[in-house]
Amino acid sequence: VKDVQPLQVTLQLDLDPAQDRFEGEATVTLALGAPQSVLVLHAQRLEPVAASVTGADGARLALQVEPDEATSTWRLRPPTPLAAGPWALQLRWRCEVNRTGQGLYRAGTQ
Q: Model's pTM, two decimal places?
């Protein structure tokens, strides 16, 4: 059994095919099976803009984002450990459009 289980993801991308960058937002509904002092997620080449969590009581907490390029992850740290139970994780980021077939990329035209 996982201590952090994603239940639902809502994703919004702001894309302009003429631009080399894009922005994204995600809300991830989480079920925490045990208290968590850090959340780790994959974030290859993403530049963090904002991260927060909202508890069942409606209280919103800002998260400190620690990008780790070596592992292509973000470590998200709340000011105090998150209690077990339901949480909504909100993320915002920017990123370059890739030139290769990985992540969001631009296909060449012939």
A: 0.84
